[in-house]
């Protein structure tokens, strides 16, 4: 029980260290993913995704997120 309480206290105090970090004004990541299946027959799927985040201040931000598999018609 004592180890559980110490672990709970440590996990509760862990976010305090991230508070000292500065908040970036904007963030724009882009990613690529590949899925290949080889089981009796084979096929592969390629996909791209991206997002944009803008932080108005240290506690308010907006995010746009999009992902697409290029070979689909939509």
Q: Regions with pLDDT < 50 over 5+ consecutive residues? A: none
Number of β-strand runs: 4
Number of helices: 2
Class by helix and strand content?
A: alpha+beta
- What's the rounded overall pLDDT mean? 82
Proportion of residues in helical segments:
10-25%
The global form is flat
Report on the architecture of this protein.
This protein has 74 residues and is α+β, with helices and mostly antiparallel strands. It has one domain (23-74). The chain is 22% helix and 47% strand. The protein contains 2 helices and 4 strands, in the order ααββββ. It has helices at 2-13, 15-18, and strands at 26-27, 30-39, 41-55, 61-68. Strands 1, 2, 3 and 4 form a 4-stranded antiparallel β-sheet that branches. The protein is flat, with a radius of gyration of 21 Å. The termini are far apart.
